[in-house]
Amino acid sequence: MKAFVFPGQGAQFVGMGKDMYDNFAEAKSMFETANGILGFRITDLMFEGTDEDLRQTKVTQPAIFLHSVILAKTMGGKFCPDMVAGHSLGEFSALVAAGALSFEDGVTLVSKRAMAMQKACEMHSSTMAAIIALPDETVEKICSEVEGVVVPANYNCPGQLVISGTEEAIDEACKRLSEAGAKRALKLSVGGAFHSPLMEPARVELAEAIEKAPFSRPVCPVYQNVSTVAETDPDIIKANLVKQLTSPVKWTQSVQHMIADGATEFIEVGPGKVLQGLVKKIDKSMNAHSIED
């Protein structure tokens, strides 16, 4: 069974999507539709901008979403998922690719998500850190003992857990996790504490937009970050999507459930090759590869 997976923030690069725009009329039309919805020419920044342009949350998230979704569309019959999943932002790409959400509504929601997250980031001095080579339980325990907001945010693969919170709490947690034997406790260059309680203002703002958007039953099960199991009910999908901003991304558990449910091949659709690497770390026997253009 084929599982198609979609990357999240961090996979962007200058020039992303230009080959599709130049070579496929349908791709060009979708990009231009997105320019109109967003109110600025994101294609100019994707194709010819700077790394700094692409690092702005309001650009990064729609850019990765567009690259992934339009790529799935240009694959035609080769996009034949038995199941889909996306990492954080990638969940929106997965839902549109699987027909649970229209392209236009997907662009609108991703843009609102990016803006709401940017605003929430500006309210606190906050960040994230990657913790390498410690059991999840150890990281969870130490985070719970640190004063202030610091929580597990991304369960990427065994031995790689990203934590999220205020600058002070992250610094203290990194110190204690290093003392507990972490090979690395590395602060990340991100805009703020994604997937933590500090994203509550963004969750409230996005919830309203998600509630108004029409969702349909997807063509195949979607394994969501919050529940980690196969979902097809539009109401459950919406509820999980609302919770996603303040809840951890349980990628390890999602991939394990996909494998248990019969996935034998993982195809990463979109920029970068991060997810195929994580899948192989979760299960070495898996056939995992990526399609970038």
TrEMBL record:
Q: Which InterPro entries match?
A: Ac_transferase_dom_sf, Acyl_transferase_dom, Acyl_Trfase/lysoPLipase, Mal-CoA-ACP_Trans/PKS_FabD, Malonyl_CoA-ACP_transAc, Malonyl_CoA-ACP_transAc_FabD, Malonyl_transacylase_ACP-bd
Q: Which GO terms describe its biological process?
A: fatty acid biosynthetic process
The answer on whether this UniProt entry bears the keyword Acyltransferase reads yes
Keywords of the record, alphabetical order, are: Acyltransferase, Transferase
Q: Does the keyword Phosphoprotein apply?
A: no
Q: Which Pfam families match?
A: Acyl_transf_1 (PF00698)
Boundaries of every Malonyl-CoA:ACP transacylase (MAT) domain copy: 5-291
Q: Name one GO cellular component term.
A: cytosol
In short, the EC number is: 2.3.1.39
One GO MF term: [acyl-carrier-protein] S-malonyltransferase activity
Q: Which Gene3D superfamilies match?
A: Malonyl-CoA ACP transacylase, ACP-binding, Malonyl-Coenzyme A Acyl Carrier Protein, domain 2
* Domain of life from the UniProt record: Bacteria
Q: Which residues form the active site?
A: 88, 195
Query: Per the record, what are the reactions this protein catalyses?
Result: holo-[ACP] + malonyl-CoA = malonyl-[ACP] + CoA
Q: Which NCBIfam families match?
A: fabD
| Similarity comment | Belongs to the fabD family.
Name of protein: Malonyl CoA-acyl carrier protein transacylase
Report the source organism.
Candidatus Enterocola intestinipullorum
